[in-house]
C-alpha cells in the first residue's frame, strides 16, 4: 500500500510538474503578447502615452559643438597659389532644441502637425574659448558671389571686391561666423547659420501610429509637401522615415532605419553596427554607411544628387553633397567631418585634415523594444566652393576648384541617469520580471516532471525486485 501511495504521489507530482511547465510555456506567447500590446499602446503619439510625453518634452539636453578650421597660410594661398593649411579649433558649444514643439495639431488622418523652433545658447563651460575668439576663414560673401554671379559679370564683381577692400579670406569671431555679421560686399547679413535663431523647421506632418504602429513618427509631409523640391528627381526628392528621434517599436536589426534631415536636405538610411549597453539599457547602434555619400560611380542611387559636373569632376567626387539647390544657390557642400569616406583629393587640396571613423561618424543608439533614440551624434561638415578666375584678382592664383572646410558640428544628446532609471523601472524591469517568471515556471515544471518520473521509475523497479525476492 505504501509503494502504491508513493507511486501515485510521484505520478501526481509529474502531472503537476508538467502542468507548471505547460503554464510557463503558455505564458511565453501570452507574455510576449502583453508586452507587445503595452509597447504598441505607449508608442502611439497621442496625449497620455509615453511616446507623447517624450515627444513633447524638452528635458533632454541637445548640444551643438562646433570645430572651426583656422587657416594658417592665407597670404601664401593668395600670392602663390599654395594649398590652404588649416588647424582645427574647438569645440564651441551651444545648447539647442530647448524650445518645445509649437502649434501641435492632431489631424483626422492619424497625423500630427507641428513647428520645430530653433535657438542656440552658448555654453562657456563646454567650450575651449569665448564667442569673441577670432578665426581666419574663407570670406563667405566673396566665395558665394563668385558662384552666384555669372562669369561674364565677374568684372563687375572684381570692382565691388576692390571697392569694399574684400579678400578671399577674412578674420572673424566665432559669433560672427556662426550667427552673422553685416558684410560690406553684399551689404547684408552673412553667416553660416544666420537664419537659425528665432526661426522654425517645418511644418512637419508625422503619423501618430494610432491606426498602424509601424508608421509611428514617419514624416507624411514637410513644409506642406510629400516630397522635396530640391533635386528635380522623384527618387532624390523622397522624404523617407522619421526625424530620427524615434522609430517604430520592435526594431529589426537586419533592416536599415530611414530618416530625413533638413540640415542636409535629403533622406538617408542607417544600418545596424553593434549592440551596446547604455546605462544598463541594451541599445542597437546604427550608423551611416560609407555608400551614403559615395560617388554615383560607386553608388548609382546618388546620381540625382550630383548637379554640377564641373565642380564634382564628372560626378566622380565622393564624400560630399552639393546642397546649393536648397541654399538659394550658395555654393554649400555638406560632408562628414574631415571628409571622412571622401575622395583622397579633398584632403590633398586642403592640408591638415585627419578623418577618424570613431570621432567623425554619425550614429544613433536605439532601444529596440520601444524604438526610442536614447543617444545620438549627428556630425556634419560645412564646406564652400571657390575656384580659379582670370578676372577676379584674389582668385587669379587659384589653380582649381577647391572645397574649403569651414566648420564641422556635432549635434548630440543622451538620456540622463534619472531618465535611464525611470526607463529601466517602467519598462525593462517589467519585461525582465515577466521573462523570469516564464523561465522559472518552465524550468521548475520540467524539473519536477523529470524528477518525479525518474523517482517513479526507481520506486517501480524497487517494488518489482522486492516481489521477485
UniProtKB/TrEMBL annotation:
<dbReference type="InterPro" id="IPR002159">
    <property type="entry name" value="CD36_fam"/>
</dbReference>
<dbReference type="GO" id="GO:0005041">
    <property type="term" value="F:low-density lipoprotein particle receptor activity"/>
</dbReference>
<keyword id="KW-0813">Transport</keyword>
<protein>
    <recommendedName>
        <fullName>Platelet glycoprotein 4</fullName>
    </recommendedName>
</protein>
<dbReference type="GO" id="GO:0006898">
    <property type="term" value="P:receptor-mediated endocytosis"/>
</dbReference>
<comment type="similarity">
    <text>Belongs to the CD36 family.</text>
</comment>
<keyword id="KW-0812">Transmembrane</keyword>
<keyword id="KW-0325">Glycoprotein</keyword>
<feature type="transmembrane region" description="Helical">
    <location>
        <begin position="440"/>
        <end position="459"/>
    </location>
</feature>
<keyword id="KW-0832">Ubl conjugation</keyword>
<dbReference type="GO" id="GO:0042742">
    <property type="term" value="P:defense response to bacterium"/>
</dbReference>
<dbReference type="InterPro" id="IPR005428">
    <property type="entry name" value="CD36/SCARB1/SNMP1"/>
</dbReference>
<keyword id="KW-0333">Golgi apparatus</keyword>
<dbReference type="GO" id="GO:0005044">
    <property type="term" value="F:scavenger receptor activity"/>
</dbReference>
<dbReference type="GO" id="GO:0007155">
    <property type="term" value="P:cell adhesion"/>
</dbReference>
<dbReference type="GO" id="GO:0006955">
    <property type="term" value="P:immune response"/>
</dbReference>
<dbReference type="GO" id="GO:0007606">
    <property type="term" value="P:sensory perception of chemical stimulus"/>
</dbReference>
<keyword id="KW-0130">Cell adhesion</keyword>
<keyword id="KW-0564">Palmitate</keyword>
<dbReference type="GO" id="GO:0009986">
    <property type="term" value="C:cell surface"/>
</dbReference>
<dbReference type="GO" id="GO:0034383">
    <property type="term" value="P:low-density lipoprotein particle clearance"/>
</dbReference>
<dbReference type="GO" id="GO:0042953">
    <property type="term" value="P:lipoprotein transport"/>
</dbReference>
<keyword id="KW-1017">Isopeptide bond</keyword>
<dbReference type="GO" id="GO:0005794">
    <property type="term" value="C:Golgi apparatus"/>
</dbReference>
<dbReference type="GO" id="GO:0044539">
    <property type="term" value="P:long-chain fatty acid import into cell"/>
</dbReference>
<keyword id="KW-1015">Disulfide bond</keyword>
<feature type="disulfide bond">
    <location>
        <begin position="265"/>
        <end position="326"/>
    </location>
</feature>
<dbReference type="Pfam" id="PF01130">
    <property type="entry name" value="CD36"/>
</dbReference>
<dbReference type="GO" id="GO:0019915">
    <property type="term" value="P:lipid storage"/>
</dbReference>
<dbReference type="GO" id="GO:0033552">
    <property type="term" value="P:response to vitamin B3"/>
</dbReference>
<dbReference type="GO" id="GO:0016324">
    <property type="term" value="C:apical plasma membrane"/>
</dbReference>
<keyword id="KW-0445">Lipid transport</keyword>
<feature type="disulfide bond">
    <location>
        <begin position="306"/>
        <end position="315"/>
    </location>
</feature>
<keyword id="KW-0449">Lipoprotein</keyword>
<dbReference type="GO" id="GO:0005901">
    <property type="term" value="C:caveola"/>
</dbReference>
<keyword id="KW-1003">Cell membrane</keyword>
<feature type="transmembrane region" description="Helical">
    <location>
        <begin position="7"/>
        <end position="28"/>
    </location>
</feature>
<keyword id="KW-1133">Transmembrane helix</keyword>
<feature type="disulfide bond">
    <location>
        <begin position="236"/>
        <end position="304"/>
    </location>
</feature>
<keyword id="KW-0472">Membrane</keyword>
<dbReference type="GO" id="GO:0030169">
    <property type="term" value="F:low-density lipoprotein particle binding"/>
</dbReference>
<dbReference type="GO" id="GO:0150094">
    <property type="term" value="P:amyloid-beta clearance by cellular catabolic process"/>
</dbReference>
Amino acid at each position: 500500500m505504501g509503494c502504491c501511495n508513493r507511486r501515485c504521489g510521484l505520478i501526481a507530482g509529474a502531472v503537476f510538474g508538467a502542468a507548471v511547465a505547460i503554464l510557463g510555456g503558455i505564458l511565453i506567447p501570452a507574455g510576449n503578447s502583453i508586452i507587445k500590446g503595452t509597447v504598441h499602446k505607449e508608442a502611439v503619439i497621442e496625449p497620455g502615452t509615453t511616446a507623447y510625453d517624450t515627444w513633447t518634452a524638452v528635458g533632454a539636453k541637445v548640444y551643438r559643438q562646433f570645430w572651426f578650421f583656422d587657416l594658417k597660410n592665407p597670404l601664401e594661398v593668395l600670392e602663390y597659389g599654395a594649398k590652404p593649411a588649416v588647424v582645427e579649433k574647438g569645440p564651441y558649444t551651444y545648447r539647442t532644441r530647448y524650445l518645445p514643439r509649437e502649434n501641435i495639431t492632431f489631424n483626422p488622418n492619424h497625423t500630427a502637425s507641428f513647428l520645430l523652433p530653433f535657438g542656440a545658447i552658448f555654453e562657456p563651460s563646454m567650450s575651449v574659448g569665448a564667442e569673441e575668439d577670432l578665426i581666419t576663414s574663407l570670406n563667405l560673401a566673396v566665395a558665394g558671389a563668385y558662384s552666384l554671379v555669372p562669369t561674364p559679370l565677374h568684372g563687375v564683381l572684381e570692382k565691388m571686391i576692390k571697392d569694399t577692400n574684400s579678400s578671399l579670406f577674412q578674420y572673424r569671431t566665432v559669433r560672427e561666423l556662426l550667427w552673422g555679421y553685416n558684410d560690406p560686399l553684399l551689404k547684408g547679413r552673412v553667416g553660416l547659420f544666420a537664419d537659425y535663431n528665432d526661426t522654425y523647421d517645418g511644418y512637419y506632418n508625422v503619423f501618430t501610429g494610432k491606426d498602424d504602429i509601424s508608421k509611428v513618427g514617419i514624416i507624411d509631409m514637410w513644409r506642406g509637401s510629400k516630397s522635396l523640391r530640391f533635386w528635380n528627381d522623384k527618387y532624390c526628392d523622397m522624404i523617407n522615415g522619421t526625424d530620427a528621434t524615434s522609430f517604430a517599436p520592435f526594431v529589426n536589426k537586419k533592416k536599415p532605419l530611414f530618416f530625413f534631415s533638413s540640415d542636409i536636405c535629403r533622406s538617408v538610411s542607417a544600418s545596424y553596427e553593434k549592440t551596446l549597453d547604455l546605462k544598463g539599457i541594451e541599445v542597437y547602434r546604427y550608423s551611416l554607411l560609407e555608400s551614403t555619400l559615395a560617388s554615383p560611380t560607386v553608388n548609382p542611387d546618388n546620381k540625382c544628387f550630383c548637379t554640377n559636373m564641373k565642380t564634382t569632376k564628372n560626378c566622380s567626387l565622393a564624400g560630399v553633397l552639393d546642397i546649393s539647390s536648397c541654399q538659394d544657390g550658395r555654393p554649400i557642400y555638406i560632408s562628414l567631418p574631415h571628409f571622412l569616406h571622401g575622395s583622397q583629393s579633398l584632403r590633398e587640396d586642403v592640408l591638415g585634415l585627419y578623418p577618424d571613423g570613431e570621432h567623425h561618424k554619425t550614429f544613433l543608439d536605439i532601444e529596440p523594444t520601444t524604438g526610442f533614440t536614447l543617444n545620438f551624434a549627428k556630425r556634419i561638415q560645412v564646406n564652400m566652393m571657390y575656384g580659379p578666375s582670370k578676372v577676379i584678382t584674389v582668385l587669379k592664383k587659384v589653380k582649381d576648384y577647391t572645397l574649403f572646410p569651414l566648420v564641422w558640428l556635432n549635434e548630440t544628446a543622451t538620456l540622463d541617469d534619472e531618465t535611464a532609471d525611470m526607463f529601466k523601472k517602467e519598462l525593462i524591469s517589467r519585461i525582465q520580471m515577466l521573462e523570469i517568471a516564464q523561465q522559472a515556471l518552465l524550468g521548475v515544471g520540467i524539473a519536477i516532471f523529470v524528477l518525479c518520473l525518474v523517482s517513479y521509475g526507481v520506486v517501480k523497479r524497487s517494488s518489482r525486485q522486492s516481489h521477485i525476492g
